[in-house]
Specification:
The chain contains 15 helices and 7 strands. The protein is α/β, with parallel strands linked by helices. The strands form 2 sheets. Strands 2-5-6-1-7 form a 5-stranded parallel beta sheet, with helices on both faces. Strands 3-4 form a two-stranded antiparallel ribbon. A hairpin with a 4-residue loop joins strand 3 and strand 4. Helix 4 packs parallel to helix 5, helix 7 packs antiparallel against helix 8 and helix 12 packs antiparallel against helix 14. The relative contact order is 0.10. The structure holds zinc ion (ZN). The site of zinc ion has 8 residues, from helix 3.
Length: about 325
């Protein structure tokens, strides 16, 4: 089944870590509790699911889940009775894994596996367990049900209770992907080469981020941000442009506008770094020459970045988005006067 959803061949990056996990899964020597650590969008969840599919498959072919046994079909349908995922629930106030979710999990994990001879549990976003939930899972990790394997995923290792980290028999660090790996992977997903090239550079090592940017038109947003800075620095940003932008931004979500400000901040940071004599890694490598052509004195760059920080802060208040956005641009323009 070349096209089965869970395949080791479909995983990009972190080849050594992935090879080890494949070995544990195929040889059924998987540790009872493992922690995967690394930034969002680099494939931790995909790898964990592939581990699960491999551990549960009844008929591995060359170390790959067969794709045709009952277990594989249930995995693909997302209804495998021995596979359990816990992830944060988003509420307006916060992302959280609550104690109730952990209790449900414990009830489930205490039962015998139904389809297979073992059970796999993924806790994605483990750092979002609130204190009660974290203390609750701790007991389970201390005395894990014999047939159950726990895979905890986190983008913020330091946000996890130390006691939880120490209960995991193994911590594996997932590294960011290279721009080439992201580029290749985007091509495979049918994204055209020019777009893929741009996205791979600005995604900062995360395929998930590249895909999210593709969906939301994020790279266009980045180019927009660059053009704005160019207009500001060349004193070409007129009131008319600001008001026209304001009209568009009024229809955006606050999150989108926050992303936009982040792009501006990163562009300003890159311009600053290009002024330095040492070589630093730029966020917007593909714009290097264009960025180097923009000359803004250091003192003014600091002020502009401070305006961005202020705008980000105001975005979290109830301030009207359009007014806030327009005033942000006017204040940026003022710093370059
Ligand atoms: Zn199978």
């Amino acid at each position: 089944m070349g096209d089965y959803k869970f395949s080791w061949k479909k995983i990009i990056g972190n080849s050594e870590t992935v090879a080890n996990l494949k070995k544990f899964s195929v040889e059924k020597t998987f540790p009872h509790a493992v922690l995967f650590a690394g930034v969002e969008g680099i494939g931790k969840r995909k790898v964990a699911e592939t581990c699960a599919a491999t551990l549960l498959c009844e008929n591995l072919i060359d170390g790959e889940p067969c794709g045709t046994c009952d277990s594989c079909k249930l995995m693909a349908a997302g209804t495998h009775p021995d596979f359990y995922v816990v992830e944060p629930e988003d509420t307006k106030a916060a992302r959280n894994i609550k104690i109730g979710q952990i209790r449900d999990l414990q009830r489930e994990a205490s039962l015998r596996p139904v389809q297979s001879d073992r059970r796999v549990v993924i806790i994605d976003g483990a750092e979002f367990m609130n204190k009660a939930a974290a203390n609750c899972i701790l007991k389970t990790l201390e005395e894990p049900p014999t047939q159950t394997i726990f895979i905890l995923l986190t983008a913020n290792r330091a946000g996890l209770l130390l006691t939880i980290r120490s209960r995991c028999s193994m911590t594996l660090s997932f590294e960011k992907l290279s721009a080439e790996q992201i580029y290749e992977s985007l091509l495979v997903q049918g994204i055209d080469a020019v777009k893929a090239q741009k996205l791979s550079v600005i995604a900062d090592g995360s395929l998930g981020r590249a895909l999210a940017l593709e969906k939301s038109g994020g790279y266009e947003m980045r180019d927009d941000a660059f053009n704005l800075i160019k207009q500001i620095s060349s004193k070409a940003l007129t009131d008319e442009i600001i008001f026209a932008k304001g009209k568009i931004w009024e229809t955006w979500s606050r999150e989108n506008f926050a992303d936009f400000v982040t792009y501006i901040q990163k562009i300003l940071r890159d311009i600053y770094l290009l002024n330095q004599s040492e070589v630093y890694e730029l966020y917007n490598v593909d714009l290097k020459e264009n960025l180097a052509a923009i000359k803004i004195p250091e003192k003014i760059l600091y002020k502009m970045i401070a305006e961005g920080t202020l705008a980000q802060r105001r975005l979290k208040s109830n301030a009207n988005l359009r007014l806030l956005a327009e005033s942000y641009l006017m204040r940026l323009r003022l710093t370059c006067k």
